[in-house]
Design brief:
Layout lengths: L1 H27 L13 E4 L14 E4 L1 H7 L4 H6 L6 H11 L3 H11 L1 H9 L1 H12 L2 H8 L1
Antiparallel strand pairs: 1-2
Helix pairs in contact: 4-5
The protein binds zinc ion.
Length: 146
């Protein structure tokens, strides 16, 4: 009975864990292809399984189907440098990712999409201006005086 449960759990858990893991990789790049920035629809093995690459985070990056297919078994940085969408910041992010520094990779990727990152950073500004105006309102001066 226990042995059967063990087999059952072993069959089930790696799959749900794998799904969560893949989802977390996509979230790290904002669901964007690490190479070109299009929506990521797959996970690319940086070093192909056929060349001894492993299914570990350092070797698996979110990629669109186009990049995933075009890259094939090529050496990733050589292949990437030949692409029209080559971006040195993305290449740096890729290197950081392969070295396991996902936070650095994430930061580099934010810089490649300045529109999205800057919009978030600008959000607090209108609130700050509003508070400054409130601080010089008559009520505030009255409170300071009493
Ligand atoms: Zn792509």
């Amino acid at each position: 009975m226990l042995a059967r449960d063990g087999v059952f759990l072993e069959d089930l858990c790696p799959k749900s864990h794998d799904r969560r893991w893949r989802g977390s990789l996509h979230l790290l790049t904002g669901r964007r292809c690490l190479y070109c920035g299009n929506p990521s629809q797959s996970i690319d093995h940086v070093k192909p399984l056929s060349r001894g690459g492993q299914s570990v985070t350092e070797n698996c990056v979110p990629a669109c189907l186009s990049c995933n297919g075009k890259k094939g078994d090529s050496e990733v940085l050589l292949w990437y440098r030949r692409q029209s969408f080559y971006d040195p910041r993305r290449a740096m992010a890729l290197k950081a990712w392969m070295e396991g520094d996902l936070r650095l990779a994430q930061r580099l990727l934010v810089w490649t999409t300045p529109g999205e990152g800057e919009r978030d950073r600008r959000l607090p500004e209108p609130d700050g201006a509003h508070q400054t105006r409130q601080a010089t309102s008559p009520l505030w001066r009255w409170q300071m005086a009493s």
